[in-house]
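Final report, results section. Input specification for complex C-07:
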Amino acid sequence: MKTLVVGLGNPILGDDGVGWKVAETVEKLLPPGAPIDVDYLSLGGISLMEHLIGYDHVYLIDAFASDEPVGSISVMKLSDLPNYSAFHTTSTHDTSLQNAIELGKLMKTPLPNEVTVIGVAIARAYDFSEDLSAPVAEAVPLAAKILLNMLARKMPA
Amino acid sequence: MTQRISIDPITRLEGHGKIEIFLDDNGNVANSYFQIPELRGFERFCVGRPIEEMPLITNRICGVCPEAHNMAASKAGDMAYHVDPPRTAKMLRELLYSAFYCTDHTTHFYALGGPDFVMGPDAPVAERNILGVIHKVGLEVGGKVIQMRKYGHNVVEMIGGRKVHPCASIPGGMTKGITEEQRKEIEEMGRWAIDFAQFSLKIFNDIVLGNKAYVDLVLGDVYTHHTYYMGMVDENNKVNFYDGKVRVVDPNGKEFVKYEPKDYAEHIAEHVEPWTYLKFPYLKKVGWKGFVDGIDSGVYMATPLSRLNASDGMATPLAQAEYERFYTTLGGKPVHQRLATHWARLVELLYAAERWVELVTDPEITSPNVHTKPTQTPTEGIGIVEAPRGTLTHHYWTDERGIVTKVNLIVGTTNNYAPIQMSTHKAAASLIKNGVVNEGLLNMVEMAFRSYDPCFGCATHSLPGQMPLEITLHDADGNPVKVMKQFC
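Structure output:
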């Protein structure tokens, strides 16, 4: 089983970079030699799908725009998220990750059957900064712990 | 009763855009506004950093074309340090950039612009995407698109040191060259890219040009504007994405100005409107006359169509033949019909692939001489490249240590802000009549801005990302009377 952890977001756009911070924390705390790869990406859609090729299970950590209090953590299956672009051509440059994975699978590309999303609620990010706001920064250790617990179940005893 | 329609296509990667349409008492368009929220603090973020960091920082502005920012920043760094990179370094940068162009233009055609034509603008939204294209044209297409993207990424990684966000460009050139083994691999991928570009043009020819309804749509007045056109050209006035002078032609196709990148501020000014944060660049020597067509209006466009209009041709043979067919078919230069941009993009795809092979087969491409060491005190640098979606300008000022003190960027889409505003307004005014608003009409309004391949450069990735496209009709008191939703 090949497992990948992806910190997703823009690391210079304030709270949008929370996924990278959680991934960094996870990478530091993983046991030495753990069979888990960690990556840091600012991509979506087809470009993101291309980085998931060859993995059995993928954990995406991303900022999450929602009505939840800032700093709230949600764990979801990608398949449980609405696939907006199933209704439309979606983003001005690409398609949704769900569509991209479907595209890859149609092309017989080895892609994960399971993608788990760990979302940290933020307010909309409009300011360039490498720093997180206090409530989002406070969520990083807990999000990392939740993910490490999930990863522990994937590792050999 | 005045009605207000709000189109809010907030997207995952490219920032936010929102179209507000106001209807008059008869349900016809009284006015419309294409609004873009501003991302704040980029200059403040950059000030105080070494200029060498700028190619790495600026490619994080946007998740769509980091390679373009990397190139413009690298060129600005060369100028700030008063250093001319060796020929091989310039070729390596352009080679990387050509491969990136192939990836980017491919994605736009197959995932974004193409579905409107391959599936039809009125096709059910569930089918109007890349999966629909594959189901209609064949599985082979999907495999080729993925292969093209893979090759593009491979070249960026081989030359740039990293996929997507290259890091090998520094003031004075590159940190490394390529081996003969890599050169052969890159050449093989480039030759495949030429075949793929020709395949893509054939699809366009068969599906779009072979369908009278689509040709009428492309040539119709709804998507037509007569403006100035901007694009970078080489010494023969042929299209070049990486280097050259910026040429502007007037609405009749006559050269208006051709300037060195360092002189951009003499020619471009920015207009401010109270209803949006983003500024509207215009030609300073013509002047801002509002959102109007014509030779007296300083509005200009910078897109694949603009680049073809602003040039005398393509520098490679197969692309030149397509360039000639493009203008013969569409009735001569310049072409003003915005939907023709999709075709122009494919002509550029072919040029990028040919240029890729041309560069990688140059005898000096594997030379180890890839860097000229800067020896002078840095001051000020301006770098311009053609981003896929328009002329991209980076301008930095530094202190004597090379620490950035001021930054000015004019990104590709910003050039096109006024034309996009004009196009969306005209499409809305032409298509929305007597209060009739449906999904098909809404998509045709969207098509007006989609042809520009707009990018508002923020790279925000916040889930759920794609937000509902919402049209809200308001009465004169601001009360919502009808809400329509779709997703984008």
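The domain at 84-205+337-373 of chain B is CATH 1.10.645.10 (Cytochrome-c3 Hydrogenase; chain B). The two ends of chain B are 29 Å apart (CA to CA). This concludes the modelling results for the funded period.
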